């Protein structure tokens, strides 16, 4: 049993590592892809945006489907879609087909983390469960580091097509899934309630119109608001497994953490999108060198987190949030004022943003489960992950739109400076005694 559990853990880690690395590989190659496909910076951002958009909907969808279909079957489908998208991307030079390939990749890749977490929590013994969760968490950080490095390395020597070929290697994890993943459903039973297709459509409408509204036409955000209204009405139904329970939004502390996390995710992925373009266009830095720089920064931030985590626990109240947001604010300010002229300063700014992202993520992950009722925690954490994905898609969307309209990196960085001022206000407001009491009351519910 121990050997089978160990092999299951290795399989899950490889799957998670593939998904995380794939989401970041192409950020380093955006400049090369833009030139090779002969498109604008705004259009090339769809390589990242389309993937994140589908991941946002897909991760929740797979979690729901795991109550209707066996997890092993869903993982096999996920890997198959992921590899199919990779092979399509490798064989094409058409921009539309490249984006389609990324969408197919995301349709499969969105199953990786969601289903791996379900398997880990339900089908591993307690000691192995802790080991698996630790290793999966390490793979999330490691994937971000090697994603940058591999993206730069493969793009420099073999071109951006090779990134798709590299990701097709995930097909070898199918053997591990077939041999070591147990058969079963989420919560160990098959759900008999009808699948909430209408709720899924409302959620899909919300996500798509939000992203397209930010990127293309602000009027689409009207549909976003309408979809939220209909989700609220639909959430009162009892005859289906509701997709989104909006009642968790009545907790003030939970909402504040959602906003902070949204801004944090938007800023991080926004800088991952902007920095390679800045390096290539302004400083003529190769994709390989950019990959080494981003990999070094990511790995440094990961290692630094082991020092930061015990240090920030000594900071009382919400000072942890304030410190993290201030670091991120300084990073973007450096980029907006000096980073567009000095590459070294730009690199320092990116490092500060990365370190801040690590701190803020740790603090929010620890505190947010305590801001909602216990019976609502699963839904609340699901919404938290959705908001993170929306932030990841919002960041490069708004950055590319500003860059396309103004052709100014300074203004793009300046937008995130203003966004972080809002985050700083939220961090400070949360330290007011009245707000602190509300948090405490929410945690006691």
UniProtKB/TrEMBL annotation:
**Which regions span the lipid bilayer?**
7-31, 43-62, 74-90, 96-119, 131-154, 160-182, 194-212, 218-236, 257-279, 291-309, 321-341, 347-366, 378-399, 411-434
- Any single Gene Ontology cellular-component annotation: plasma membrane
Q: Where is the Major facilitator superfamily (MFS) profile domain?
A: 7-435
Give the GO molecular function terms: transmembrane transporter activity
Which Pfam family is an annotated match for this chain, by its short name?
MFS_1
Top-level taxon in the UniProt lineage: Bacteria
Return the protein name: MFS transporter
Q: What is the protein's species of origin?
A: Bacillus salipaludis
């Amino acid at each position: 049993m121990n050997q089978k559990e160990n092999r299951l853990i290795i399989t899950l880690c490889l799957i998670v590592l593939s998904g995380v690395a794939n989401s970041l590989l192409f950020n380093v190659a955006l400049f090369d892809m833009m030139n090779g496909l002969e498109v604008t910076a705004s259009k090339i951002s769809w390589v990242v945006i389309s993937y994140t958009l589908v991941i946002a909907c897909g991760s929740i969808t797979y979690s729901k489907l795991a109550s209707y279909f066996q997890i092993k079957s869903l993982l096999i489908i996920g890997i198959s879609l992921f590899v199919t998208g990779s092979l399509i991307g490798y064989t094409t030079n058409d921009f539309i087909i490249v984006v389609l390939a990324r969408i197919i990749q995301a349709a499969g890749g969105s199953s990786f983390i969601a289903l791996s977490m379900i398997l880990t929590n339900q089908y591993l013994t307690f000691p192995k469960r802790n080991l698996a969760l630790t290793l999966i968490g390490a793979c999330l950080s490691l994937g971000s580091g090697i994603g940058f490095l591999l993206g730069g390395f493969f793009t420099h020597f073999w071109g951006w097509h090779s990134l798709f070929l590299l990701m097709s290697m995930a097909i070898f994890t199918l053997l591990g899934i077939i041999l070591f993943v147990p058969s079963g459903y989420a919560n160990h039973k098959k759900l008999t309630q009808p699948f909430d297709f209408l709720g899924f459509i409302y959620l899909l409408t919300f996500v798509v119109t939000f992203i397209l509204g930010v990127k293309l036409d602000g009027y689409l955000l009207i549909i976003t608001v309408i979809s939220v209204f209909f989700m609220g009405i639909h959430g009162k139904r009892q005859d289906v497994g509701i997709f989104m329970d909006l009642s968790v939004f009545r907790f003030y502390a939970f909402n504040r953490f959602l906003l902070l996390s949204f801004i944090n995710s938007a800023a991080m992925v926004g800088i991952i999108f902007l920095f390679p373009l800045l390096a290539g266009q302004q400083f003529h830095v190769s994709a390989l060198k950019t990959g080494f720089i981003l990999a070094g920064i990511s790995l440094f931030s990961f290692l630094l987190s082991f020092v930061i985590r015990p240090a920030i626990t000594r900071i009382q109240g919400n000072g942890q949030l304030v410190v993290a947001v201030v670091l991120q604010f300084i990073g973007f300010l450096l980029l907006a004022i000096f980073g567009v002229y000095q590459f070294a300063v730009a690199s320092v700014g990116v490092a500060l943003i990365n370190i801040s992202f690590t701190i803020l993520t740790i603090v929010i992950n620890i505190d947010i489960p305590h801001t909602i009722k216990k019976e609502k925690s699963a839904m609340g954490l699901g919404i938290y992950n959705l908001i993170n994905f929306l932030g990841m898609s919002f960041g490069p969307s708004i950055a590319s739109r500003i860059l396309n309209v103004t052709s100014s990196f300074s203004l793009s960085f300046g937008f995130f400076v203003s966004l972080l001022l809002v985050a700083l206000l939220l961090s400070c407001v949360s330290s007011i005694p009245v707000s602190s009491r509300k948090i405490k009351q929410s945690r006691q519910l």
